[in-house]
Amino acid sequence: MIRRILIIAVLPFLIFADGNKQERDALFKQAVSAYAAEDYESALNTFLSLENSGIVSWELFYNIANVYYRRGEPGPAIRYWEKAALLAPANPDIAHNLNIAREQLNDKVVLPEMFRLFRWYQELQKRIPLDRMIRLIGYLLAILLLIPALYRLRRHLRGKAKRTPAFVITLCLAILILLLSVITLDTLYERRNSRHAIILAERAEIYSEPDANSVLLFSLHEGSKVRIGREIGEEWSRISYFDDKIGWIKSEYLGKIEE
């Protein structure tokens, strides 16, 4: 079952996210009341107006996704849960809803079993909160720089001290910082250079060329996630589906995740 829409948790965020407190508060309460009354059309319009006013938060995207799901629109729902996951990659509610929605899709691919270490690394990249990782690296760097000073201070106060423990600690910290930095930079590169989208049309045809008269390669259905390659204006996009299916699709059928 899809978990219930966030109501109380998101309210303080929206209130203090902008100086226009009263207006935002009123809009949010209006959306919540509409959702509670099962007036999903009104709830959606109000939540989207908050998004269009500049509000960016995983809570808002999560709520929008839930409303879309209640309206029976899995494509936009998955798109907004994916957008929420970019901001809160470790949130269990988002992951739970995405897993359930994906189980209901028409397009399902059974992938070969991936080497466990690679699978773990991919999951780690999806869930890493980059801001926290960068702060952690900064703290570890500060500790690393303090170790020589602490060693000298201890040596000054207690006389000659063994260098081995300080050297081992320094080496372990340096290796840990290097490892975390590589993972963070790789994750940052992947997120900035990978563009994904969700199929919003009930059925979308993928062609060999950016031309509806070219060879029809395959079709995808609403809710499927694709990677965007090249784009020709606002008409056509070259997409890949699990790397082995590549072709051109009309851009109007796509709902971009990273914008």
Question: What key phrases describe this protein's structure?
Answer:
259 residues, alpha+beta, Serine Threonine Protein Phosphatase 5, Tetratricopeptide repeat, SH3 type barrels, 3 domains, two-stranded antiparallel sheet
Q: Mind explaining what this structure looks like?
A:
This protein has helices spanning 11-16, 21-36, 40-52, 58-70, 74-87, 92-103, 116-127, 130-158, 164-193; strands at residues 195-199, 203-207, 216-221, 225-232, 236-241, 245-250, 254-256. It is an alpha+beta fold and 259 residues long. It folds into 3 domains: 11-103, Tetratricopeptide repeat domain (Serine Threonine Protein Phosphatase 5, Tetratricopeptide repeat); 116-193; 196-256, Roll (SH3 type barrels). Strands 6-5-4-1-7 form a 5-stranded antiparallel beta sheet. A two-stranded antiparallel sheet has the order 2-3. Helix 3 runs antiparallel to helix 4 (58-70) and helix 8 (130-158) packs antiparallel against helix 9. The chain is globular. The protein starts with 10 loop residues before the first helix and ends with a strand. 24% of the residues are buried.
